[in-house]
From TrEMBL, chain A:
Protein name stated in the entry: N-methylglutamate dehydrogenase subunit B
Recorded superkingdom: Bacteria
GO biological process terms, semicolon-separated: tetrahydrofolate metabolic process
Pfam families given in the database record: SoxD
Organism per entry: Albimonas pacifica
Gene Ontology MF term list: sarcosine oxidase activity
InterPro entries: SoxD (IPR006279), SoxD_sf (IPR038561)
Automatic annotation (TrEMBL), chain B:
Limits of the SoxA A3 domain: 503-586
Domain GCVT N-terminal stretches: 601-864
Molecular-function GO terms, alphabetical: oxidoreductase activity
Family: Belongs to the GcvT family.
Ranges for domain FAD/NAD(P)-binding: 168-415
Protein name: Sarcosine oxidase subunit alpha
InterPro entries assigned: 2Fe-2S-bd_N, FAD/NAD-bd_sf, FAD/NAD-binding_dom, GcvT/YgfZ/DmdA, GcvT/YgfZ_C, GCVT_N, SoxA_A3, TrmE/GcvT-like
Automatic annotation (TrEMBL), chain C:
Organism: Albimonas pacifica
Molecular function terms from GO: nucleotide binding; sarcosine oxidase activity
Domain Rhodanese: from-to ranges: 35-79
Name of the protein in question: Sarcosine oxidase subunit beta
InterPro entries given in the database record: FAD-dep_OxRdtase (IPR006076), FAD/NAD-bd_sf (IPR036188), Rhodanese-like_dom (IPR001763), SoxB (IPR006278)
Origin superkingdom: Bacteria
Keyword terms: Cytoplasm, FAD, Flavoprotein, FMN, Nucleotide-binding, Oxidoreductase
UniProt entry tagged with the keyword Electron transport: no
Cofactor annotation: FMN; FAD
PANTHER family assigned: FAD-DEPENDENT OXIDOREDUCTASE DOMAIN-CONTAINING PROTEIN 1, SARCOSINE DEHYDROGENASE-RELATED
């Protein structure tokens, strides 16, 4: 299996780490630190069970270290899209000459 | 007479050894070809019934006999002689027979085989007792009997290579279709790899009468710069995203034995050909029974006649190609065609070649020699339809060449999840359509011209898919192409009988599965193909069902009364054929299993006599023994030295993360359980980090180097996870201006510990490091031995101590200077073990205590969990289970008898209640020079508050030593920290 | 059910195997049952058997989407052991091991449970002490377990890497002698046959597509073969837990669905006598089957998947460990690889529990270890269903343990499924 890192290009999946489901916005990944335990239980321990297309957070840990927004199918392993999960990384990439 | 070399086959001779006998084969032979040419008929004994078996095929579908190659540590068992390339000096022997191939005691199993029907072992060997005794006694004998070949338990001395490769088009197979596809794709300018499992390229063209044509075609292709022809290279599996696994056998003398190619192919063309299958009849497994296609291959490609007297028994057209080739080679050929009417054109050609053609006849049962069992003749009968026949007459034969039909090798497309479909017309599964293109016999196209057409069409489609051409698709060839349709013949059974009975009729010879076994499975309710296969073990042998898989399905379908109009496809799992495990490991094996991490001080520590210990991937200096010292003696001396004068320890493996930015302080305040925002510049602070679930992740120190610049150090064991933790939270808090960079290997460091440590630091820095200039928990960026250094006054040992970090290039100078200065003060180096003793004496925790199960409260540090701010882990730390007052809390333990030696992992019990799991456990022990006894840290429900001064029994059934210990607070030495500041 | 015996095998051998009848019946579903178990794997069938045997329930059906025993029951590496430490796990797995020891006789089906021992290799003092705690706990709670020195391990497993150049030298190991391996298909078929004999209906090719509800309760299932009513509906569908639980209305679950690969070599004469496991550079475990294949595996592929299809990169991970620990294996040839879909729970421990939805029961989250648990899982699940409350042995396997801070994190790895 391969993933195409928007910074490094296509790489073997062994370079990446699956972090978990991704909401689409880094700041909504977890409740506020001050939130009640119940909200934290849900965020940390409970998962939807996507059979088919799902949005995930990966990290190119053994590469550029970027967090990646991955659209993937859990039935076919097809990877539909890989983008920077961190808007700052995307902006930095755009700013590159 | 048995096999011999045909005249006119001119190839250099190759000496080899079979069963201890020196033999000669010809260059270009397989081992099977060479054995046949030498008149060898019986090659091994079968798995369960120990029946004599010979060569049955000329490829991976070989189901006759497996052999063992090589000797000693290079012993390689279970090889198919039909695919082993003959090399000079090759040593091969038969397997699964004792005392000899000819007189095998295990053959008694053949007599007993009526008892060994499918699944019999599920019904017996249990015994009357409700335990496993009887079974295990029986199993000892069963294990001894099972297992096919014997591997050497010695380490494999050979090396394996692993490489990644890329290509536009990967063509699996170099037969007519594969070469045509490669040519077409190459003409479109694509980068093409042709992988051929055989040692010779050409596939079926290797059996052409004129070899020059093939040689010319190959030379032409090879001359193209964008084509790579790889012989001895099998595509064994297709994986997600165009990843193909290829295994290449390298020639003798190469540095590696085999090589794994992880090939990233944009397009894959399966030109993998088809395997001929037989059909089932009585005693269809004798040495001498082989596939018709194999007989033709031995004659044509290898110039070997498997015998003089041949009966060809076919149910389809391609059997004629075999009988014609054999007859043309001068052999006596009787051809039984199971079909009522022979295809006229082929029949005419066969008769013209001298074949004695008998349409409408089938073999019913074979006869063999009394002793060895090799084929000597067969009973034949008129085919009454549906496989029914009555033995009517006998024919003499040394070779019975059988052809029941063809099975396209659809493994690769099936692995790519292209579901195959059964073609009743062709009597085979055809590959499913999809990303992977199939052509030639792999797509059920039987004729040579058809295969080439189909190959070109696939090559063109690949070029179109990769946008390498604007040309239109070529017209593909239709599957089939025979003159007359095949007879749907799976099994010849004596008319009027439900089972074969005495004459065993094998579906899967390698696993000794018979057609009767298949029927028995159905009778017992294992009527679905998947259940039948599991119950009978059909298809699980080293050929993975290549010989008998489809026949087994058909026999089952017939038994279920469903006919074979539609068979459910089976699953094929990688690898296509067995591959050495070494290729997957490649260089990551033995000493290279995992990388070795060495600190920049490694060489100096080694020179100073260090013994190293594995700490994760690191090699850490464990202790520095003087002559005669063991671990305990050396580490106790080193620990005592630190308390008396000064010691120098390598702490480079500590994790280091730099956090910078306007909001770096706010960031760390959220990360750590204790406050960090108010840490002054130039100061360091001990801190605890929690996981999200409220459990302690790690401990460490935070150094504030500047207002917006921090260094976080963490433990060696958790360096990676803590760095990832910080990076993850930086990502989740985009509103904070902070960057996180792991710098573990960018800095290396020494700890200087002991009452004389300041003198050493002065010598290193030449700076004012007085208590005023560098108080406890002070941080300074100064120079040490002329290099920029970060210095903090931190103590793990409870003594006055400093950590000095420099860049790796400054390591050697720093070590030398530190050791010299320490030596001058009466000190020296100390290792990880002494470090551990010193911290246990002080009750400081490490990974043995921060073990992924503890809260700050469990560590006796409830105060470290701030109540005044929010931080990661706080919310979930406030769950009931983590606040339970019964949770074990860190305590110190000292033995009642000073000489008693408690061990880590002992369980703590109140005296008099020494049953069950107890109230806690011992986490760390240390032979303390300061206390003169072995002390311990541990956890006990209630902690020091409950147990201070009381006795606990440390129960340790594993070591057999129970130690009575007195509990107390975890700190054994200098509880008020006078030494730290003194 | 006519009992199997050696005499029967002999007699049938002499009379052309005519006497054997179906091991279990493939039933057409009835419109209603007392209990419907969804999932004809080992756990579902065992549950049905114990419902009939221990609780006297007669109207029990096991509904299987395809064929029984084709999911993880038929795809595992067949290791049976009880070397668990945490309260809750310890007692449960000890119970399962005890059931295993007499199960062949009880089911009158040879499960080939062979107690040749399970050897956990130790490479360093930290691991040794952590495992000493575990094995001491086992010893103090009725299980067997002992420490073997380097030379004792070498005597039992001379094929491991004992050379000076080993990257991680083996310093010893922990042996549980009562552990071992069994034949996975036999467990499925043995429970199926024994359950069928007690009147349980085994219904194959019957896919549950939805749930029947009345009020807030579940009162049956919709299937590919029509509606089936039941007082109690019990899920035992590891690998498909997520989608089915979602249909049942359980909402988010404390698990992720991953794929786990396993491997087997060509058949060899016996070399590997025990089950060998190692935690160096990630999990590794291997044993040699009675047919001679060395069966082994490592960790999950690391990302959620419902496809029984593994990646090539995992081969290298697993086989580096295999050939480094047992260097002869480099030359041994891989015969087959396969993948299973496993429920990875957030603490690495399972669920056997009633649910907040009346009439619905939940068995899931078996991670790497469902096979060995099968008998006790069925035993406890049957109790839970019959009594509408968990047995003491599975009380810890609740769904709300995360909310309460009562995780059963045997590996102490935290809420990250790939680390369990």
């Amino acid at each position: 299996m391969r993933l195409t890192c928007p910074f490094c290009g296509p790489r073997d999946v062994a370079e990446f780490v699956y972090e978990g489901p991704f909401s689409g916005a880094p700041q909504t990944e977890r409740p506020a630190l001050s939130a009640a335990p119940a909200a934290w239980v849900e965020a940390v321990f409970l998962r939807d069970q996507p059979r088919g297309e799902t949005r995930e957070l990966w990290r190119h840990l053994h590469g550029c270290g970027c967090f990646l927004d991955v659209l993937r199918d859990t039935l076919t392993h097809e990877v539909r899209a890989v983008a920077f999960a961190d808007p700052a990384d995307a902006a930095a990439m755009r700013a590159k000459p | 007479m048995s096999g011999f070399r045909l005249r006119g086959h001119a190839a250099p001779l190759v000496p080899f050894t079979w069963q201890g006998r020196a033999m000669l084969g010809a260059q270009g032979d397989t081992l099977a070809a060479a054995l046949l040419a030498n008149g060898v008929r019986t090659v091994g004994r079968s798995f369960k019934h120990h029946r004599p078996r010979g060569i049955m095929a000329a490829g991976e579908e070989e189901a006759g006999a497996l052999v063992t190659l090589g000797e000693g540590a290079r012993t390689t068992p279970n090889l198919k002689p039909s695919v082993v390339e003959l090399e000079a000096g090759l040593v091969a022997r038969a397997q699964n027979c004792w005392p000899s191939l000819r007189f095998d005691l295990g053959a008694v199993n053949d007599r007993l085989s009526p008892l060994f029907a499918a699944g019999f072992y599920y019904k017996t060997f249990m015994g009357p007792f409700a335990d496993t005794r009887i079974w295990m006694a029986c199993e000892r004998l069963i294990r001894r009997a099972a297992g096919m070949g014997a591997a050497s338990p010695l380490p494999d001395p050979d090396l394996y290579d692993r490489v990644h490769g890329h290509c536009d088009v990967l063509v699996a197979g170099s037969g007519p279709a594969g070469l045509a596809a490669a040519r077409e794709a190459a003409d479109a300018g694509l980068d093409v790899v042709v992988a051929e499992a055989d040692f010779a390229l050409g596939g079926d063209r290797l059996s052409d009468r004129d070899p020059q044509e093939l040689a010319a075609a190959l030379a032409e292709l090879d001359a193209l710069p964008n084509v790579r022809l790889m012989a001895r290279t099998m595509v064994f599996g297709l994986y997600d995203h165009g990843v193909a696994g290829l295994v290449e056998r390298l020639p003798a003398g190469a540095p590696w034995r085999e090589r794994l190619h992880v090939m990233h192919a944009r397009k894959v063309v399966a030109a993998t050909g088809a395997l001929q299958r037989g059909f089932v009849f009585g005693d269809n497994d004798r040495p001498g029974v082989m596939s018709a296609a194999a007989a033709r291959t031995y004659v044509r490609r290898f110039g070997v006649a498997p015998a003089r007297e041949v009966v060809v028994a076919g149910a389809e057209d391609s059997a004629y190609a075999a009988s014609i080739a054999l007859a043309q080679a001068g052999l006596d050929v009787i051809h039984l065609d199971a079909r009522e009417a022979a295809p006229p054109a082929l029949a005419e050609r066969a008769r013209a070649a001298g074949v004695d053609l008998r349409p409408g006849w089938v073999p019913v049962r074979t006869q063999g020699h009394a002793l060895g069992g090799e084929l000597r003749g067969l009973s034949v009968g008129r085919h009454l339809g549906d496989g029914r026949a009555r033995a009517e007459t006998r024919l003499p034969a040394e070779i019975l060449a059988v052809s029941g039909g063809w099975s396209p090798s659809i493994h690769l497309t099936t692995q790519a999840r292209q579901k195959p479909a059964w073609s009743a017309e062709l009597g085979c599964f055809l590959p499913g359509e999809g990303e992977v293109l199939s052509c030639g016999a792999a797509a059920g196209v039987w004729s040579r011209e058809g295969a080439e057409t189909s190959g070109r069409a696939a090559g063109r489609l690949a070029a179109i898919a990769l946008k390498a051409t604007r040309r239109r698709p070529l017209k593909d060839a239709d599957p089939g192409g025979d003159e007359a349709p095949p007879a749907a013949l799976w099994e010849v059974r004596p008319a009027g009988r439900a089972f074969h009975g005495a004459g065993k009729a094998y579906v899967d010879p390698l696993h000794d599965v018979t057609a009767d076994d298949v029927r028995l499975a159905r009778q017992e309710g294992f009527e679905a193909p998947e259940h039948m296969k599991r119950y009978t073990t059909l298809g699980m042998a080293p050929d993975q069902g290549k010989a008998g898989g489809v026949i087994g399905l058909a026999v089952l379908a017939v038994a279920r009364g469903e006919g074979t109009g539609s068979l459910a496809p089976t699953t094929f799992r990688p690898p296509y054929a067995p591959v050495s495990m070494g290729i997957f490991a490649g260089p990551d094996r033995g000493p290279g299993w995992a990388p070795v991490r060495r600190t920049p001080f490694h060489a100096q520590a080694e020179a100073a006599g260090a013994v190293f210990v594995d700490a994760g991937l690191w090699k850490r200096a464990w202790f520095f023994p003087r002559p005669g010292e063991d671990l305990t003696a050396a580490s106790m001396r080193e620990a005592a030295m630190v308390r008396a004068t000064v010691g120098v320890a390598d702490v480079s493996t500590l994790g280091k993360v730099e956090v910078q930015g306007r909001d770096a302080a706010a960031f760390l305040d959220r990360i750590f359980a204790n406050p960090m925002a108010n840490l002054p510049v130039g100061r360091a602070r001990y801190g605890l980090l929690l996981r999200e679930d409220g459990i302690v992740l790690d401990d460490g120190t935070v150094w504030r180097l500047a207002g917006d610049r921090f260094l976080v150090t963490c433990t060696t064991a958790h360096a990676a996870t803590t760095a990832e933790h910080l990076a993850r939270w930086r990502f989740r808090w985009p509103e904070l201006d902070a960057t996180v960079d792991e710098t573990t290997e960018a800095w290396c460091g020494l700890a200087l510990a002991g009452p004389r440590s300041r003198a050493v630091l002065e010598a290193l820095t030449g700076a004012d490091v007085s208590d005023a200039a560098l108080p406890h928990l002070g941080v300074r960026e100064i120079e040490a031995t002329g290099a920029p250094a970060r210095v903090a006054r931190l103590s793990f040992s409870g003594e006055r101590a400093y950590e000095v970090m420099v860049r790796p290039e400054a390591a050697a100078a720093l070590w030398q200077a530190a050791l010299a200065a320490a030596g001058a003060e009466g000190g020296g180096p100390y290792g990880l073990e002494a470090l551990d003793i010193l911290r246990v004496e002080k009750g400081h925790v490490t990974g043995r205590e921060i073990d992924g199960r503890v809260t700050p409260g469990d560590l006796g540090m409830p105060g470290m969990a701030s109540r005044a701010k929010d931080y990661v882990g706080r919310a979930l730390m406030e769950r009931e289970g983590l606040l339970d007052p019964a949770r074990p809390v860190l305590i110190g333990l000292r033995p009642v008898e000073p000489g008693a030696k408690v061990a880590g992992g002992a369980l703590l019990h109140p005296l008099g209640a020494e049953t069950g799991r107890g109230i806690g456990h011992v986490s760390s022990v240390a032979d303390s020079p300061a206390l003169g006894m072995r002390i311990a840290l541990g956890f006990a429900a209630g902690g020091p508050a409950r147990w201070d001064g009381k006795l606990l029994m440390a129960k340790d059934p594993i070591s057999g030593r129970d130690v009575k210990m007195r509990a107390g607070p975890p700190c054994f030495l200098d509880p008020w920290g006078e030494r730290l500041h003194g | 059910m006519r009992p199997y015996s050696a005499l029967d095998v002999l007699w049938n051998g002499l009379t052309g195997q005519r006497g054997w009848t179906r091991a279990w019946r493939d039933r057409a579903p009835r419109p209603a049952y007392d209990v419907v178990i969804v999932g004809g794997g080992g756990h579902g069938l065992a549950t049905a058997y114990y419902l009939a045997r221990n609780h006297g329930l007669r109207r029990v059906a096991v509904l299987e989407r395809g064929l029984i025993g084709q999911g993880n029951a038929g795809r595992n590496t067949t290791i049976v052991r009880s070397n668990y430490m945490l309260p809750g796990n310890r007692e449960f797995y000890e119970h399962t091991l005890k059931l295993w020891e007499g199960l062949s006789q009880e089911l009158n089906y040879n499960l080939m449970f062979s107690q040749r021992g399970h050897l956990a290799l130790s490479f360093d003092p930290g691991f040794r002490d952590a495992f000493a705690r575990r094995y001491n706990t086992m010893r103090m709670t009725g299980a067997d377990g002992r420490w073997l020195s380097r030379s004792e391990v070498q005597a039992r497993a001379p094929y491991l890497d004992w050379s000076q150049s080993a990257r991680f030298p083996i310093e010893g190991g922990f042996l549980q002698q009562r552990a071992g391996t069994a034949r996975h298909d036999a467990l499925v078929w043995g429970f199926a046959r024994a359950a069928d004999a007690r009147g349980v209906h085994i219904v194959q090719n019957c896919e549950v597509t939805g749930f029947l509800r009345e009020g807030g309760a579940i009162v049956g299932v919709e299937t590919s073969r029509g509606e089936i009513r039941a007082e109690k509906v019990a899920l035992a569908v590891a690998g498909s837990t997520g989608p089915l639980a979602a249909k049942a209305g359980l909402g988010k679950l404390p698990l992720e669905t991953h794929k786990l690969q396993a491997f087997v070599t060509e058949p060899l004469k016996p070399i590997v006598h025990q089950v060998i496991s190692s935690a160096r550079q990630g999990l590794f475990y291997m044993s040699q089957s009675d047919k001679g294949g060395v069966v082994f595996g490592g960790e999950i592929d690391g990302h959620p998947s419902y496809a029984q299809r593994g990646g090539l990169e995992t081969y290298s991970e697993v086989m580096s460990k295999a050939v480094s620990l047992a260097p002869f294996l480099a030359r041994t040839r891989l015969l087959r690889q396969w993948a299973g879909v496993v429920d990875m729970s957030m603490d690495g421990s399972p669920f056997i529990t009633p649910t907040p939805i009346p009439g619905l029961y939940f068995n899931a989250g078996w991670n790497y270890g469902g096979f060995k648990a099968t008998p006790a899982s069925g035993w406890c699940y049957a109790h839970t269903i019959a009594h509408d409350a968990p047995h003491e042995l599975n009380a810890a396997f609740s769904l709300d343990r995360f909310a309460r801070g009562r995780e059963l994190d045997e590996e102490a790895a935290g809420p990250v499924p790939r680390l369990h």
